[in-house]
Amino acid sequence: GPDRDEVLGTVRRLYAELVGYPEDVFESGTDLEADLGIDSIKQTEAFARITDHFGIPESAAVDVRLTGYPTVDAVADLVVELAEGRELTGTVA
């Protein structure tokens, strides 16, 4: 699968592009909604761009509840799992 640091960098970049924030606001512990005000609609849009970027099929990501992945680090971990085609655990929020 892809390198996690590379995935994290891409996740941060795509979020930054989508919402118009500088990349450095996306710290590892920063809550996308609570701290940055990025609502679930924007998170879903960002996630679609991210999975598209990494060639992850929509079917693999269809059951993901993004509320369970509130930080860029959590999203990056999820993307690595999906990219490796692992069985997902803990997707139900």
TrEMBL record:
Mind telling me which Pfam families this protein's record contains? PP-binding
Protein name per Swiss-Prot or TrEMBL: Carrier domain-containing protein
Task: Report the residue ranges that make up the Carrier domain in this protein.
Answer: 2-83
